Amino acid sequence: EMEGENEVKLHGMWASTYSKRVELALRVKGIPYEYIEEDLRNKSPLLLQYNSVYKKVPVLVHNGKPITESYIILEYIDETWQNGPRLLPQDPYQRAQIRFWASFIQQQLFGSFYKLISSNGEEQEKAVEEVFEKMNVLEKGMKELLPEGVPEVDGNNFGVLDILVTATFGPYKAHEEVFGLKVLDPEKYPLLFSWVQKLNEIPLVKGVLPPHDKLVALLQFIKQNDLKPSS
């Protein structure tokens, strides 16, 4: 491919799980990109122009054309750069299964996490129950999807579910420290727990996860000021 044909920019935010998904995908594929950090309290005119509907990060800009919504960006990356590891399996049935669980993690599980982080008192207790319920469903589903257990993961077989699990659970220690809740319980969720341990050891992942202390400080700030975590 000729120089300048593939100009890739990512508008993101250092602690955003949604941004991290896209960063992981770009790195798995080995796609060079320029990263642009957005201040979500003072969004750049470009971000507002590129994502006029949601005004959120991440936005991938490929040769001047913006693509928004992290999961849609993952599929776009996989379809556009077909060399390098595939993020979704080629087989339509397998791909449908992966998409189903990707959607579950994003909508169901993440929705419950969001409630948990942004609620108090009785509402929070309900949210805790809901999170554990969804975690049970995910653990069971992953045991069925991966009957042999979690495969050895490296940069060459790093798929969409690895990306979502990393972005969602990778920084679990920071969340435990701030919210005092052990969501990724190794007793209850042995498969998910061992999967996250494996993922967190991969150099590619270590290079993307937000620094622990910095994330703890941000989460404490969100908690104390009763702010809604931004996507």
From TrEMBL:
Localisation per UniProt entry: Cytoplasm, Cytosol
Record-listed E.C. numbers: 2.5.1.18
Domain of life assignment: Eukaryota
Domain GST C-terminal per the UniProt entry, residue ranges: 91-229
Pfam families: GST_N
Bilayer-spanning residue ranges: none
Recorded GO CC terms: cytosol
Key words, A-Z: Cytoplasm, Detoxification, Transferase
Reactions that this protein is recorded to catalyse: RX + glutathione = an S-substituted glutathione + a halide anion + H(+)
GO molecular function: glutathione transferase activity
Family statement drawn from the similarity comment of this UniProt entry: Belongs to the GST superfamily. Tau family.
Function: Is involved in the conjugation of reduced glutathione to a wide number of exogenous and endogenous hydrophobic electrophiles.
Protein name: Glutathione S-transferase
Species of the source: Citrus clementina (Clementine)
